[in-house]
């Protein structure tokens, strides 16, 4: 269930079970909470599962210990294209109520992916601010 809070100018903030807020400007989109990498690591140690949404190549170059890789985007030529099977693949690996922390390289793709998961009914999604770059800078455990 979401609560609606008026911002006084015909915009509303929706608080979702994912723990964040989103402005509704013609669209009802849930936004997850974002936490620093050290908090994300503590959540992982407490049993949250790490979903790494970077490309397979980025993941192969190093990733947090225990992370599951499901790319949110694929490299195509000189750019990135959205993985049209992202939600389907996440749904076969995670349950809607699983506690999931979502990370990418810098925090942009993970926020998009986490927002999509919240909107799709996943209830315990947390975005990792700073991504794998910050994870490495903080010398948290990695494979490679």
From TrEMBL:
<dbReference type="InterPro" id="IPR036873">
    <property type="entry name" value="Rhodanese-like_dom_sf"/>
</dbReference>
<dbReference type="Pfam" id="PF00581">
    <property type="entry name" value="Rhodanese"/>
</dbReference>
<protein>
    <submittedName>
        <fullName>Os06g0725000 protein</fullName>
    </submittedName>
</protein>
<dbReference type="InterPro" id="IPR052367">
    <property type="entry name" value="Thiosulfate_ST/Rhodanese-like"/>
</dbReference>
<feature type="domain" description="Rhodanese">
    <location>
        <begin position="44"/>
        <end position="144"/>
    </location>
</feature>
<dbReference type="InterPro" id="IPR001763">
    <property type="entry name" value="Rhodanese-like_dom"/>
</dbReference>
């Amino acid at each position: 269930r979401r609560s609606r809070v008026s911002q006084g100018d015909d915009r509303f903030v929706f608080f979702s079970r994912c723990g964040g807020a989103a402005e509704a400007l013609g669209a009802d989109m849930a936004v997850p909470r974002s936490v620093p990498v050290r908090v994300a690591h503590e959540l992982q140690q407490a049993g949250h599962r790490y979903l790494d949404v970077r490309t397979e190549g980025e993941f192969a170059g190093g990733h947090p210990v225990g992370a599951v890789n499901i790319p949110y985007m694929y490299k195509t030529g000189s750019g990135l294209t959205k993985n049209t099977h992202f939600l389907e693949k996440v749904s076969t690996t995670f349950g809607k109520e699983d506690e999931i922390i979502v990370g990418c390289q810098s925090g942009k793709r993970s926020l998009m992916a986490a927002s999509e998961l919240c909107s799709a009914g996943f209830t315990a999604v947390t975005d990792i601010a700073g991504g794998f770059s910050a994870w490495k800078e903080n010398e948290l455990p990695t494979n490679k």
